[in-house]
Amino acid sequence: MMASSFRDCKAWSAENLPMSTSSNEACKLYDALLTQYVTYKNDETLGGFEGCLSAITAADPNFVMGHVISTGLNLVSTSSSARLDESLASAVRRTVELANSQEISPRERLHVKAMELSSHGNYPKACELWEDILVDHPTDMLALKFVQDAYFYMGAQLQLRDSVARVLPYWKPHMPLFSYLNGMYSFGLMECRLYDQAEKVAMEGLAMVPDDAWSVHTVAHVYEMTAQVDKGLKFMESREKDWQVSDVLASHNYWHWALCFIEKGQYEAALQIFDSQVFRRCKATGSMLEAVDASSMLYRLELEGVCVKDRWRELFQITQPHTDDHVTLFNDAHVFMASLGAKESRSSQRLLEGLQELSKEPGVNLQHQMGRTIGVPMCQAMMEYDRGNYNRTVDLLLPIRYRLVNMGGSDAQRDVFNQLLIHAAMKSEDKHHQKLGRGLLVERDAMRPNSPMTDRLMQRALALHI
């Protein structure tokens, strides 16, 4: 039986979020899954996500919201594509059929529709429905979490901030999961570059829940984006015991820690975190977030001139099965990095051709719609850089640099593409590109004063182009 702290049928109804099931156990398991989703934590006492996912189906096989949360979590992980993965596609269909065969509330019906739309990559429409739910039910945490993740995959920074701001007044301190709203709100503020406010809100969250890994994550971003490197290192180290228990996000927070070392030019320290934490966890879980972080980190180190080629080969074993997924352009770009790094040109070619093919008739899939204009030139730019064609890299990357936000991820994650453009411009034979490279460094310095990486690159630019 589920612990009494989780909400049963009556408790959900009391919060104006009634569930169409008579099984208290199913309602509590829903709450247990939601809690793990919000806290980024596999709770072993509950059997983790996996244990709860199988138990919820057993408790009430016809519980629509049980199917919505189970299938929705699978979709949000972006680890498999409903276009290719028959079991995921049939889970979506089964949820829709169940919803159509019984009396459920309008809120639940919207949840089903939004989940179905997101399975087709129609994030904008799905977000509209989750926001509709939140107008009438501002304390529906599942709608809020799903819409936050979808905005993140769309690079919709203002929406990320505002969707939380709108519901905040309706939440009260006694409500379950209330204290995690600070982390969510602070992340949206940070992506809108309101760094002081973001840090303040995140710190308030940490005062309530010291192990809120998402609030820690916001602060790590703030220090990264403002090049407060030593502050970032100190912060991550002093709170490591708190945030590493959130196993779903721990690897990503270690990644942020390693970025501080890369920024300082301390590559060995960064590689140690890569080996002992980021890649070790990536190998154990195969999670898409962790594979993306691992690719991004090796790519940054390689741009800095560090040799990481054996690590690429190992990482490629994990990314290779995702070559045909094309769930998000952001994932595609990072899977592409790994195939380039491992010198697996057949896989690189296959990914690129697959993306070109899907973007011809993208249908409602937002990511495929942007495939031709953003995804393809992005991958081609990396390929040209890999071949030493720096002029061509700049020509491909420069026109799309301000549109890359639409491929999703955070400013910090997308910074790898800014770095690529700077390196390509500096290495280009073209005098115009070299001037551009220096201009990009001046621009970077204005946004992140005192960045050791910018200083290093400036020195290099001056040495190269005397």
From TrEMBL:
It comes from the Eukaryota. The keyword Repeat applies. Keywords: Repeat, TPR repeat. The keyword Transcription regulation does not apply. CDD domains: StaR_like. Transmembrane segments: none annotated. Belongs to the TTC38 family. This is Tetratricopeptide repeat protein 38. It comes from Gymnodraco acuticeps.
